[in-house]
Fold:
Amino acid sequence: MDEWDSATAAVSIDDLDAYLEQLRKDVAMAEQGNQKVSGEISVTAETTFNDMIQLDVGIEMLESLISNLGPKALNHFDESSVLGLSDSTDSCRNRSIADKDYIYELELDHQIEKSTMELEILQHLQR
Structure:
């Protein structure tokens, strides 16, 4: 009997069965791990998809806001330039009120855009 035959003879059927059982357990654990990773990938893909939708809507909102604010912002800065510092107190008070109105208008525009964005997200999720 050579070396190989003596080694195989020493391995019993019970040892082989135990080894096969261990291999089956290892395969089952690997499959569970694969399922877990697949689930995590699915969740990550869905989260990324939803985040990209929000990002696209946010970019559109900012582009719209910039295009809407472009002329307004320039006119506002022209009206409140530093050159008019010698204006009377009433003029300063009126400018302060105008600034508050302008800020309030910006806040309302932002709320409208935010609501529009949320509506678009909800509509997209319903598809």
Residues 81-85 have pLDDT under 50 and may be disordered. The helical segments are 3-10, 13-79, 89-126.
